[in-house]
Design a protein that fits this description.
Layout (H helix, E strand, L loop, with lengths): L1 H37 L3 H7 L11 H9 L2 H32 L5 H11 L4 H15 L5 H24 L4 H9 L4 H12 L1 H16 L3 H6 L8 H7 L8 H21 L1 H9 L5
């Protein structure tokens, strides 16, 4: 009986592993197609198709695409915008959630519902008012406009997440700190923030990656080529009636590599933040 149960458990584990490997292959297939086509010549792509392996590693298309898009400048633009949004959005989320979760201010439920609804608004609905607002305040075609818009958008999700966690924060710890003479800022930065560092780190990584990949609103607010981000630069390569598939694949690879590198660097932070399921 025990051997039969052990065999069944082993079979289930191997089947689960096989299913996960199949799902992983499905997820990685588009990325693999992009990689192999980034090193092909246009002739190879036309003659052998998109699924064939390159005969030789052709690095010229990557270097040509880099120079054609002025990719160094576009990378710097994306880095400045994504980092600024992650920092500012995290700061807004922290102070908002401190007031809603710890302060227990009046109407907190209604405000949380509003923050939650803000995450469901399509960006197409925001384009028209944001365009005219940026024009009115003189921020149109500036990176600051994109930073402020996305900092507010990302902070809506961060506020909802952190306030839900802070509402469960042990009140005894907070009362003991107040009795010891801590003020509200010391309470926030010396007690609450250190305890919630894993979740804050995860929010920072998500805010950075989400902002890096944004396309629609930066396209509306940044018409100048010199101020555009990586996704906008990649879109330039696609014409209305023709498209260089190898150049598009190379630009897509160049655009996704910084996100992969950033994700790898903060992998341990993400693992700690996701597995931290409760307030210590």
């Amino acid at each position: 009986m025990m051997n039969s149960q052990h065999l069944t458990n082993t079979t289930v584990k191997y089947l689960s592993l096989l299913l996960l490997l199949v799902l992983l292959a499905i997820v990685l297939l588009p990325f693999g197609v992009v990689v192999i086509n980034s090193f092909k010549t246009p002739t190879e792509y036309v003659n052998n198709g998109p699924m064939s392996l390159p005969q030789n590693l052709n690095w010229d298309i990557l270097f040509t695409t880099w120079q054609r898009l002025d990719f160094t400048h576009k990378l710097w633009n994306s880095f400045i915008i994504a980092t600024s949004v992650a920092i500012l959005g995290l700061g807004l989320s922290l102070f908002n959630s401190y007031a809603l979760g710890i302060g227990k201010m009046r109407g907190r439920v209604i405000l949380l519902i509003i923050f939650l609804m803000a995450n469901t608004l399509p960006q197409e609905a925001l384009a028209y008012p944001l365009y005219y607002l940026a024009k009115f305040v003189g921020l149109y075609n500036t990176q600051l406009a994109v930073i402020l818009v996305f900092a507010v958008i990302q902070s809506a999700f961060g506020t909802y997440l952190l306030s839900s966690m802070y509402s469960q924060f042990p009140r005894e710890i907070l009362e003991a700190a107040l009795m010891d003479g801590s003020n509200k800022l010391q309470l926030l930065f010396c007690i609450i923030v250190p305890v919630s560092t894993p979740t804050i780190s995860v929010l920072f990584v998500f805010f950075f990656i989400w902002t890096w990949n944004e396309f629609f609103l930066p396209m509306v607010l940044l018409p100048s080529t010199a101020k555009q981000t990586v996704p906008l630069a990649i879109a330039v390569l696609q014409g209305q009636h023709n498209m260089d598939a190898t150049a598009s694949a190379a630009s897509a690879l160049l655009g996704i590599l910084p996100c992969i590198l950033f994700f790898i660097l903060f992998q341990r932070t993400l693992t700690k933040g996701i597995t931290a399921g409760s307030v210590k």
